């Protein structure tokens, strides 16, 4: 389960960065929202999967509520999921 969470975490982090730093600027500066639409749904699904998997593996990883909170908050911070992978999942 940990390896699945690591993969989802990586994909969620990449999709978030693409959405923030590529799709959103294109939308605002060029007026083309197609990239946001294309990346938005997969990112949303990966985000929800990340949250659910974090809650599911909490017991397996022996995380207390504070650690789970850090893992969940990291999902909304740019580069946060990469930090979680390095600090808590390796």
Automatic annotation (TrEMBL):
<keyword id="KW-1133">Transmembrane helix</keyword>
<keyword id="KW-0472">Membrane</keyword>
<dbReference type="Pfam" id="PF12823">
    <property type="entry name" value="DUF3817"/>
</dbReference>
<feature type="transmembrane region" description="Helical">
    <location>
        <begin position="38"/>
        <end position="56"/>
    </location>
</feature>
<keyword id="KW-0812">Transmembrane</keyword>
<feature type="transmembrane region" description="Helical">
    <location>
        <begin position="68"/>
        <end position="84"/>
    </location>
</feature>
<protein>
    <submittedName>
        <fullName>DUF3817 domain-containing protein</fullName>
    </submittedName>
</protein>
<keyword id="KW-1003">Cell membrane</keyword>
<feature type="domain" description="DUF3817">
    <location>
        <begin position="4"/>
        <end position="89"/>
    </location>
</feature>
<dbReference type="InterPro" id="IPR023845">
    <property type="entry name" value="DUF3817_TM"/>
</dbReference>
<feature type="transmembrane region" description="Helical">
    <location>
        <begin position="7"/>
        <end position="26"/>
    </location>
</feature>
């Amino acid at each position: 389960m940990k390896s699945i969470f690591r993969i989802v975490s990586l994909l969620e982090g990449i999709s978030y960065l693409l959405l923030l730093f590529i799709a959103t600027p294109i939308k605002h500066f060029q007026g083309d929202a197609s990239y946001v639409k294309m990346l938005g749904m997969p990112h949303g699904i990966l985000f929800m999967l990340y949250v659910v998997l974090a809650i599911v593996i909490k017991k397996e990883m022996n995380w207390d509520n504070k650690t789970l909170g850090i893992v969940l908050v990291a999902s909304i911070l740019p580069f946060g999921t990469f930090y979680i992978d390095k600090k808590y999942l390796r």
